[in-house]
Amino acid sequence: MHDYPPPGALPVATVSDAMDRFGVAAGIRPLWSGAVLSGPAFTVWTRPGDNKGLHAAFESIRRGEVLVVNGGGDETRALIGELVVQKAKALKIGGIVLDGAARDVTELAGLGVPVFARAITPAGPWKTGPFRTGGPIAVGGVPVMPGDWVLGDDDGVAVVPFGQVDEVVETTRRLIEGEAERRAANQRLVPRV
């Protein structure tokens, strides 16, 4: 088991650079500025607009895991709202990433569970299934397996395959050091007259 860096410890953009700019979930954004998450993925694949699988996931998800949901990119029905996120908060999960929509944004921000989604809509979900939990999915065009490292910040979401976490963390830290050196060099630039 990896020691995943805590939320906000490493910037998503630099982690993506460390993976040759792969692994970024296209179109998935935080629902409010300042939301950060980091942890192992707990995966759900559900019929677009249906959240029965999310409720099933809460029976098995562990503290600190990030609920990652392939909702088919559907923007017409919210997969989560205030009541679902209250449950997530009680279970102390690491956050929620939806390739789908959410609602109750003001209330969600107040609950403090980081939520990243493709869209926002007031329309509620269906609750009939089908769904799959704990298997391979894709979110924002990126493959996600259970246990992969999922991290998010204001720039979006990245997914690091489980077997590459240590290498990507080390590479990211080296890139951050190099960026600090370039920032210092930029401060020393003198304008031409």
Structural description of this entry:
Belongs to the class II aldolase/RraA-like family. Its cofactor is a divalent metal cation. Homotrimer. It comes from Streptomyces zingiberis. The protein has 193 residues and is an alpha/beta fold. It has a single domain, classed as Ribonuclease E inhibitor RraA/RraA-like (Glucose Oxidase, domain 1, 3-Layer(bba) Sandwich), CATH 3.50.30.40. It is 27% helix and 27% strand. The chain contains 5 helices and 11 strands; from the N terminus they run αββαββαβαββββββα. The strands form 2 sheets. Strands 1, 2, 3, 4, 5, 6, 7, 10 and 11 form a 9-stranded mixed beta sheet that branches. The protein has a two-stranded antiparallel sheet with strand order 8-9.
Compact description:
With 193 residues, this protein is α/β, with parallel strands linked by helices. The protein has a single domain (12-187), classed as Glucose Oxidase, domain 1, CATH 3.50.30.
